[in-house]
């Protein structure tokens, strides 16, 4: 798929080197089609890495996508150069009058705080409420999923005794759902979190459907009954070394951290990690874009409701 992103965005060169089809704005304007309008609310501190992770997955269908990157205006990012945010990002205030076919809300390293203690919570609540009327379908990831489930349905999160950290096997509970079309019955995906949501809380909400769980990592994928909202508790977008970098960081800080589950060969951190989850990560986002967003969104975005 041609992902329409600015020529100067750092992710562009990485994706071109991997033969991911990216397209400049000027070339896109010469195609006589309406691209899907997709927004990414990037809550991660390492925004440049997260952009690359997500754009790689979004570049795997024949659809043309116009991407808008959003950051929280009420939060000051310490890990991304201000020049990068100024050049490539916008804020919620600047897009609140717009409509989008799809929205991805990333995770954030704030999961051990109460939701209301996060410094941008009020702004995020406003954006979450706005998304129900201005976006056809939203993919919520990790803490973004927890925050949205809490805001929209009152689903709580719970502190874990130990960090859920590594690559875990997951079961497909409903193979007929479009978002899981073509998935194996059991598939791997990475997790990195200190909190969880629980299956019994999802089951208590009639508007939600539990789509995939893990015997060890618990709830993985939740969907809304209308098939437009999805909540992923893990990180299918992670690259080969993402968990390794987190592990090395915590070890260097003398933090209590175990070797990531089912990640290093023979659980040896001295060996290169194996990538076992990438095909299902691509399939998850391709299914979302093809079967949910493209097939469901109205041509006229003013009709999104």
From TrEMBL:
GO CC list: cytoplasm
Catalytic site: 142, 235, 237
CDD domains: GATase1_HTS (cd03131)
Keyword Nuclease: no
Binding annotation for substrate: 163, 192, 249
Coiled coil start-end: none
Family the entry assigns: Belongs to the MetA family.
A matching Pfam family: HTS
Gene: metA
InterPro entries noted in UniProt: Class_I_gatase-like (IPR029062), HST_MetA (IPR005697), MetA_family (IPR033752)
HAMAP family linked to this entry: MetA_acyltransf (MF_00295)
Domain of life: Bacteria
Pathway(s) this gene product operates in, as recorded in its UniProt entry: Amino-acid biosynthesis; L-methionine biosynthesis via de novo pathway; O-acetyl-L-homoserine from L-homoserine: step 1/1
Keywords for this protein: Acyltransferase, Amino-acid biosynthesis, Cytoplasm, Methionine biosynthesis, Transferase
Site for Important for substrate specificity, residues: 192
Swiss-Prot/TrEMBL site (Important for acyl-CoA specificity) positions: 111
GO molecular function, one term: homoserine O-acetyltransferase activity
Function noted in UniProt: Transfers an acetyl group from acetyl-CoA to L-homoserine, forming acetyl-L-homoserine.
EC number assigned by the record: 2.3.1.31
Record organism: Kineosphaera limosa NBRC 100340
Subcellular location: Cytoplasm
Protein name: Homoserine O-acetyltransferase
Reaction catalysed by this enzyme: L-homoserine + acetyl-CoA = O-acetyl-L-homoserine + CoA
GO terms classed as biological process: L-methionine biosynthetic process from homoserine via O-succinyl-L-homoserine and cystathionine
